Amino acid sequence: MTSTAMPTAEQHGFRPHSDGAFVPVQTRSERFRSVNVEDFAPVTGREHEWKLSPVAAFADLTGGELDGSRLEIETTDAAGVDVSWIARDDARIGRAGIPEERAAANAWSSFGEALLVSVSGEDEKVVAVTRHDLGVAPRAAHTVIEAAPNSRGLVVLRGTGDARLSENVEIVVGEGASLTVVSLQEWSDDAVHLASHFARLGRDSFLKHIVVSLGGNVVRVNPSTHLAEQGSDVEALGLYFADAGQHLEQQVFVHHDAPHTRSRVTYKGALQGAGARSVWVGDVLIGNSATGTDSYEQNRNLVLTDGTRADSVPNLEIETGDIEGAGHASATGRFDDEQLFYLMARGIREDEARRLVVRGFLGEIVQKIGSPELEARLSAAVEAELEGR
Q1: Which of 227, 263, 295, 302 could be joined to 232 by an S-S link, Cβ 3.0–4.6 Å?
Q2: pLDDT in tens, 105-127
């Protein structure tokens, strides 16, 4: 008689996979990377990085031919900021990171020249780079933003009008520099935008990275930050407002790789209308050499109507026990009835009370941008979203 008291190997799943040997990726840092699109299998939607995305809506960007010619851009002038185009074999390309998925690799394989934004000088300065009406043909782009050691600056990378764009953005922050980068998506209703941002931070440097997604049909902006040297610090912020049928996605990765580094990740979004969808995936990896790390990530979603969906997935990997602290949080919910009651009891109409709650909820992110002019414009844009314009 065969005893079943002890589980068999098959019960534990220790048998060969039906498709052959299969070893899952055990840690975020082990994901495959390449700048060559042919090194990635075609996207099916079952992959871990695509399983929450509407992959059929942008199959041309993940597997088709992309126009990699220069984009039409508009820039503002600022002392200490130089904007130029550089060849794809320039040594300044590839320092911040390389693609982990096929859309980013397709863009990397396709671009002809990269846009270089160089920031220098210790005084504060602001520069805006706008891409407008890129058309409906699939396109590729590559941007490098470089902050010289001890420099200060704010760079706004803005998209408006029509687009079907896959791009990579590299951000290199030099020793002692303080840089703010705002990625602002105000595309037209049918636009599709896939972006991977790679940031590398030098010793005692600071990066404030802000993703604001309001327009577009499908927008997927995935920022990765490498805290590569001691004392580096990142504040990763995000604001999004998904309307009916709109898909807004952010997959955030912070890699603590050096001692005494700090990160704060805060993404907040609102959803209204049938089929409005948001996706937030937050990965924080604290490496075994990252002693003294201080890290926290959170995502908050405010659901304004029925028929919406918000996916929120925080992940935390810790490879050393010698840290100051690490944590994560996620919440998705409707209006706080007590807040509404408080406002309505003071004579405020319900529709106005709801707008006030949303303004306060999203205003935390807007107020941290550091540019009064841009903050005012984004507050007006959020107000327009609430009024359905």
Answers
A1: 227
A2: 999 999 999 999 999 999 999 99
Least confident range from 102-106, 273-277, 335-339: namely: 335-339
Taking 70 as the threshold, does the pLDDT of residue 306 lie above it?
A: yes
Residues 100 and 185 in one domain: yes
The string of DSSP letters for 305-368 reads STT-EEEEEEEEEE--S--SEEEEEEEEE---HHHHHHHHTTT--HHHHHHHHHHHHHHHHHTT
CA 10 remoteness from chain centre: 41
- Domain of 262 in residue numbering reads as 31-334
Q: What is the pLDDT of residues 172-228, one digit of tens each?
A: 999 999 999 999 999 999 999 999 999 999 999 999 999 999 999 999 999 999 999
CA quadruple 261, 96, 59, 129: dihedral, nearest 10: 100
Tens-place pLDDT, residues 318-340: 999 899 999 999 999 987 777 77
Instruction: Give the global pTM.
Output: 0.91
Within 10 Å of residue 5's Cβ, how many Cβ atoms? 4
Q: Do 179 and 202 reside in the same domain of the chain?
A: yes
User: CA–CA separation, 359 vs 338, rounded Å?
Assistant: 17
- Whether residue 24 is contained in a domain is answered as no
d(CA 243, CA 218): 11
Asked whether residue 228 falls in the same domain as residue 316, the answer is yes
Q: Which secondary-structure segment (H or E) carries 178?
A: strand 178-187
CB atoms within 10 A of CB 99: 23
